[in-house]
Amino acid sequence: MALTELEIKHAKPRGKPYPLSDGDGLILLVQKNGSKSWILRYRMGGKDKRAGLGKYPKVSLASARKQKMAFKRELVFGGNPKERRAAERREAARIKAAKAATFGKLAREWYASREGAWSDSSRAGVRHMLDACLLPRLGERPMGEITARELLSLFSAIGEDAPSTARRAKRLASQIFQFAAARGDVSLDIASGLTISTKPVRKRHFAALTAPRDIADLMTCIDAYHGSATVRAALWFSLYTFQRPGEIRSAAWDEMDFGAKLWRIPAHRMKNKRPHVVPLSRQALRLLKSVKQLAAARAAPPSPLVFPSKVSKTAPMSALTVCAAIRTMGYTDRQMTAHGFRALASTNLNEQGWDSDVIELSLSHTEQNASRAAYNHAEKLPERREMMQAWADWLDGLRR
């Protein structure tokens, strides 16, 4: 006799589990604690079998009957609903585990498995590379879903302004993928075979923002940038000083001579391995002082760096940070990069009639003749001071 909802609701627990039959193999099993579960009895291969259809009241009487009919139809056509469900559960569990195996999770496990063998400086370097370059873009991505194209895009973006950083990031990602492959979370290391090319990027980008109206629009965007105040300051400092992005990111307070109004960059930080002096305009000095005040207002001790990483006071801002800010402001990688501030300044200073030697010295382009380089360094500083102040004043004029 078929069951009714009323009978099911009023079925009380007994000293041991007991079944209530709805007919055609469908029963409701009432447990000693009062819980109720649907069971379907059926025959397959000459043997009696059982399949669970869920608990009551989550699975109603009507729903249990529909499941029974679907189950039996599948049996008629040669299927095995129980095995199919088990396979579906296994696949769902596999997908869930794969999604849980994110790049960030495996990167942290890889780091923990190796950090004991590293020196303090190596640990700090790897930690910075993870936090600044890889985890912001890949941290929440399941390892199995990351593509080679996605990695190549990331490494190329880093390589626009810091090719050596891009190569280190690629090697680090490759080690994490090898770790994941050894655990069975991915089938292979998709990072190791990638070739990073940054050849055409700079020349293609430099010409994009040289028109005064475009520079004025850029400054409006920087003013409206809602990200970190430190990143905004780095953008302004790039405009005022137009030094290489790596030199700006790693600028230290002990390099800033406020009395002489100079930024003294040591040789080991320069591309040409020669010390470089950058005259600081009034605007650049005001900017530095405001950054210093902001840093002093934060938790002590302040960073020795002017533009430190958000994750470490002792590490410089990531090569990706300024590029990401430029993208946030709406510029594509074909319009502007962190390195583009140099071409922006060079083009306009040349058009304004400044001495090309003064411009090249300010850009720290390598002088092949060593004696001439020494002479220029000594004799051109007054002209460079004048040009840097005029450049900052010209920018302020565009802002107005």
Overview of this protein structure:
By secondary structure, the protein is α+β, with helices and mostly antiparallel strands. It folds into three domains: 94 residues, Integrase, DNA-binding domain (Double Stranded RNA Binding Domain); 97 residues, Tyrosine recombinase, N-terminal domain (DNA polymerase, domain 1, Orthogonal Bundle); 198 residues, Intergrase catalytic core (hpI Integrase, Chain A, Orthogonal Bundle). It has 17 helices and seven strands. The strands form two sheets. A four-stranded antiparallel beta sheet has the order 1-2-3-4, with helices on one face. Strand 3 and strand 4 form a beta hairpin. Helix 4 packs across helix 7, helix 6 runs antiparallel to helix 7 and helix 14 packs antiparallel against helix 15. The termini are far apart.
Which secondary structure elements does this structure contain, and how are they paired or packed?
Layout: H1 5-10, E1 18-23, E2 26-30, E3 36-44, E4 47-56, H2 61-76, H3 81-100, H4 103-114, H5 120-138, H6 148-159, H7 163-183, H8 201-206, H9 212-224, H10 229-241, H11 245-249, E5 256-257, E6 262-265, E7 276-279, H12 282-297, H13 319-328, H14 340-351, H15 356-363, H16 370-379, H17 381-399
Antiparallel strand pairs: 1-2, 2-3, 3-4, 5-6, 6-7
